[in-house]
Amino acid sequence: MSAIKTETTATTARATLIRLEQVKARTCLSRSTIYAYMREGRFPEPIALSDRCVAWIESEIDAWIAERIASRRSA
C-alpha cells in the first residue's frame, strides 16, 4: 500500500496520508525514534485508520522536515 489520498469536494483540497514505511524513508528516522519524538511532542501524531492501522498527513511530515532544515540554517 503506497499512499491513501482523500479529497474534499467543498474546497478541493487534497490531503495525502502516508504509512510508517514512507515516513521512515522520508525522514531517515527509525520507528522507535519516530514514536519517541511523538511522545516528546516533537513529531506529528498519526491518524487512526482502523484499530491496528495508522497513517500520517503528508503535509505535516513535509512541514516537520522543513522545520528541521530551517533550524539548521538559523543555527
Q: Would you tell me the overall average pLDDT?
A: 89
Largest sheet: 4 strands, antiparallel
* Share of residues in helices: 40-55%
Q: Count of DSSP E strands?
A: 4
Order of helices and strands: EEHHEEH
Global Rg? 13 Å
Secondary-structure-based class equals alpha+beta
Give the N-to-C terminal Cα separation. 38 Å
Number of helical segments?
Answer: 3
- How much of the sequence is in beta strands? 25-35%
What sort of overall outline do the alpha carbons produce when their principal axes are compared? globular
Low-confidence stretches are: none
Lateral strand order in the biggest sheet: 1-2-4-3
Keywords, separated by commas or semicolons:
25% strand; four-stranded antiparallel beta sheet; 4 strands; 75 residues; single chain; alpha+beta
Fold and architecture overview:
It is a single chain. With 75 residues, the chain is of the alpha+beta class. It is 45% helix and 25% strand. The chain has a 4-stranded antiparallel sheet. Strand 1 (3-7) and strand 2 form a beta hairpin. The longest helix is centred in the last third of the chain and has 17 residues, at 58-74. The N and C termini lie far apart (38 Å).
Overview in brief:
By secondary structure, the chain is of the alpha+beta class. It is built from three helices and four strands; from the N terminus they run ββααββα.
Write the layout of secondary structure elements.
Elements: E1 3-7, E2 14-18, H1 20-27, H2 31-39, E3 47-50, E4 53-57, H3 58-74
Antiparallel strand pairs: 1-2, 2-4, 3-4
